[in-house]
Amino acid sequence: MTEADIDAVLDAHAGDCRAAVRAVLEDLATIAERYSQRVSHGYERGFLAAERRP
């Protein structure tokens, strides 16, 4: 993450810091939702099938 990246986000929201933070948080929520849909809940919690345990 560079200063230019931060400037680009702020520029995309016309310098409105609250709008920029809101957009970043919405993006993070979307990424988290997509992740949880693609990864098994057991894997998220660290559970492995018996045959895969060391």
3D architecture notes:
It is a single chain. This protein has one domain (3-52). It has 3 helices and no strands. The model has no long low-confidence stretch (mean pLDDT 83). It has 54 residues and is an all-alpha fold. 0% of the residues are buried.
Structural topology:
Elements: H1 3-12, H2 17-38, H3 41-45
Radius of gyration: 18 Å
Give the termini distance in whole angstroms.
37 Å
Query: What's the order of the H and E elements?
Result: HHH
Reported for the largest beta sheet, the result is: none
Number of domains: 1
> In terms of per-residue confidence, which ranges show pLDDT below 50 for 5 or more consecutive residues?
none
The amount of helix comes to 55-70%
